[in-house]
Design a protein that fits this description.
This is CBM20 domain-containing protein. The chain is mostly beta strands. It has a single domain, classed as Immunoglobulin-like (Sandwich). Helices cover 0% and strands 55% of the residues. It contains no helices and 9 strands. Strands 3, 6, 7, 8 and 9 form a 5-stranded antiparallel β-sheet that branches. Strands 1-2-5-4 form a 4-stranded antiparallel β-sheet, with no helix packed on it.
């Protein structure tokens, strides 16, 4: 798994690219507090090499909790900036700091 961040000088946003290796998966989405944990509009595209990838513009100078939704199962990013306990989920969420 990987996250790349591209800070833009012309806009107050960061282009964040999420890459998830999941050859056997049918669908992968990134969900978090930046999209109300809704997978609609946050699906990642499957590449020929088996990875799923997507880029999103997120407001900079913010912190976001997120997880991947891989065929209906929540998965954390191994390269997250940090992790935050979530009582509602009863698990840790990955945290993205921009």
């Amino acid at each position: 798994m990987a996250i790349t961040k591209q800070y833009l000088k012309s806009k107050p946003v960061v282009k964040v690219t999420f890459t998830v290796p999941a050859e056997d998966a049918k669908k992968v989405a990134v969900v978090g507090d930046f999209n109300n944990w809704n997978p609609k509009g946050s699906m990642l595209k499957k590449l020929k090499n088996g990875n799923f990838k997507g880029t999103f513009d997120l407001p900079k100078e913010n912190t976001y909790e997120f997880r991947y939704l891989v065929d209906g199962t929540y998965v954390n990013e191994t390269e997250a900036d940090r992790y935050q306990w979530n009582d509602y989920a009863g698990a840790e969420n990955a945290v993205l700091e921009l």
